[in-house]
Amino acid sequence: MIKIALIVLISGGLLGCNSTPTEQVNCQSQDWYNKGKENVEEGRSVRHFNQHIKQCGSSLPTTAKEQYIQGYRDGLVEHCNFDKGYERGEMNLSSISICPLELREQYNKGYQRGKQARLQTIRDLERANDSANRAYSEDTAISTPTE
Amino acid sequence: MPLLFKPITVILLLVTSLFVTVSSYAAVMEIELAKPTFVLPQFTGPYREREASVAPEEYEMADRLRSLLENNQRQQVLQQLAEFYDIELSPAMLALKAQVYFTLEMYDEALTTYKAVLSRKPELVRVHADLGQLYLIRNDLENARKHFAKAIEFGSNSAIIHGQLGYINLTQYGSFSAIAAYQQAIALEPQNPQWQQGLLAALTQAKMYPAAMAMLEDLLKQHPELPELWLNKAALSLSMGESKEALIAIEMAMLLGEDNSKNIKIAAQLHLQLNSFDRALELITQHINRTKLEMPVLNEYLMWLGQINMWTQADELLDDVAPQLTTMSTADQCLFYAHKARIQQVQNNPKQAEHFYNLALDKNPADGETLLSFADFSAAQKQYVQSELLYVRAEATKETEKQAILGRIQLYINLKDFPSALTQLKRALLKYPELFELKEKIDTIENIVRAQTQLSS
Fold first, then answer.
1. Which residues pair with B22 in a beta bridge?
2. 3-class secondary structure for chain A?
3. Is the N or the C terminus of chain A less surrounded, counting Cβ atoms within 10 Å?
4. Measured between CB atoms, which of B54, B85, B92 is closest to A69?
């Protein structure tokens, strides 16, 4: 019984890993430009659009791809820069891997700096904590009556 | 030119006409020069990493594409690149895609792709240079100039870019803007004839004759065997009003094989101008005999010879072409006989002249000019009836109508047939109001007619 339960659990887990939840888009009325930008925010590859092609088939408007790519490109410019990289690094988020080569350098630089800043902050906090602990220890040591 | 570039057949022309008025003949001499050209390179080579890098994840694909390109399998390269969204490709890969489109003459696709590269990496020198050439092929010189200028602005020091910019400036913005660009191209490739030719044309068009001449002399020292350089010198000398120098240079060019009809004609004209008649005649005869006879050319030669009273030589020239008479159109045969008639007329052989005039009109009874000449000649020979008839016939031709009416009026006045003269005068004024001076003549003749009427009554 326990074995069966484990198999069900593991299979369910594997299925969960494998499947991307299907996004519901209204093929005709979807703002494809914004969809492109959204997908960048979500760290998705531009190839994600292929799913929309599959999903919408012939009801996909002829301009959808162009609008989506424009939105995606603008999204990349907004997200693949030093500041956004820094933000993600500082927040200890994973680095997004969709930045094109020409934007990647600045983004990565920002991300590394953000990470360093985070580490520095942690170190500072630790140091402050250590100092506080030391001071406390010393205080308690002075106030302890000598026997 | 780098070995990567393969010449294609885009040859662009420059206008290098030089016009000089030669006072004694009031004619325009225009030396036929070889046009400055340049050969546009075509792209066959792979991307260059020094200009834009490929992404690390593309290294493997780059190697594959490189070997496909080396085997000239460009369609396959396109197929592989088409598997990616453009935004997934690095600017270097996208530029390669654009270059392949360009090579395959898919110009619209190439244009869009180059623009996409520049929207991502606006400072890519190579892409600006390629785009400039693409616009040049499509004859969009304004955009071509813009991108060549950008390529230079971003650091290109390629002679071909400077040279092409020079060419566009020369054709679009005048010679001064082209000189610096051509000089830069020559500085980088001193032996390239395209830039030499371009700079020479630019200097000449800018009327910087001494500079152009100095450059030309230098080139002639290096290549005295090139007839086109001698022709350039001739054109330049004409521009500077140095007919003798021009003639020497044309003769040199002809000695080296130059045989353009227009230039032979100019040489003959210059010889006539400088009184070396024998050589002039030799060139004229040589030209007439060598080429398919063109009546306008023959007319021009006969006119020149007539202007300096070389009637005998003019007649000999006509005799030279006489064997070709049967191959001529009837209109040209008419002109031939009309020339013969005029020569006989000038040489005081009225019977011969009349004979040739009749032959001319047999060939083309409606030739206004011949009818007019024959009418004038007949009047001078006191053959008034014939003269009147010929003037009337000449009136039927639009080009000679006015002249014929005026000729007839003069004939009536000379014959003191004032009523007829008056009728024709009034007709002429009605038809040609711009001849307002006829009004005065009408008044005078009306007075005469009135007086004659009073006398007779």
1. B27
2. CHHHHHHHHHHHHHHHHHCCCCCCCCCCCCCHHHHHHHHHHCCCCCCHHHHHHHHHHHHCCCCHHHHHHHHHHHHHHHHCCHHHHHHHHHCCCCCCCCCCHHHHHHHHHHHHHHHHHHHHHHHHHHHHHHHHHHHHHHHHHHHCCCC
3. C
4. B85
- How many CA atoms within 13 Å lie on the side-chain side of B368? 13
Question: Residue ranges per domain, chain B?
Answer: 366-457
Query: Stretch B411-434: mean pLDDT, rounded?
Result: 93
- Residue listed under structure tokens 């521009």: B239
Q: B355 at the A interface (CB within 8 A)?
A: no
Cβ contact A102–B85 (<8 Å):
no
Q: Is B91 close to A102, i.e. CB distance below 8 A?
A: yes
Going by the DSSP 8-state scheme, the letter that residue B171 receives in this structure is: I
Q: Compare B9 and A134 and report the one with higher pLDDT.
A: A134
CA distances from B275 to B234, B271, B279, B311 (A): 18, 6, 9, 15
Level-2 CATH architecture, domain B366-457: Alpha Horseshoe (1.25)
ipTM of the complex: 0.70
Alpha-carbon gap, residue A37 to B75, rounded angstroms: 33
Instruction: Give B92→chain A minimum CA distance, Å.
Output: 10
Cα→Cα distances A115→A94, A98, A99, A126, Å: 10, 19, 18, 16
With CA atoms as reference, report the closest residue to A63 among A15, A20, A31, A18. Answer: A31
Query: Average pLDDT in the B333-353 region?
Result: 94
Probe site for chain B from A101, A104, A105, A107 (most B CB atoms < 10 A)? A101
The CA-CA-CA angle for residues B4, B7, B8, to 5°, reads 130
In the predicted model, is pLDDT for residue B14 greater than 70?
no
CA distance B308 to B275: 10
Closest by CA to B100, choosing from B64, B68, B55, B143, is B68
The single-letter code of the amino acid at A24 is: Q
* Chains A & B: contacts with CB separation below 8 Å: 29
Name the token pair of B215. 């450059």
Both ends of chain A: CA-CA distance in Å?
66
Three-state SS sequence of B71-94: CCCHHHHHHHHCCCCHHHCCHHHH
Instruction: From chain B, pick out residues whose CB is under 8 angstroms from the CB of A100.
Output: 55, 87-88, 90, 120
Phi, psi (deg, nearest 5) at residue A71? -65, -40
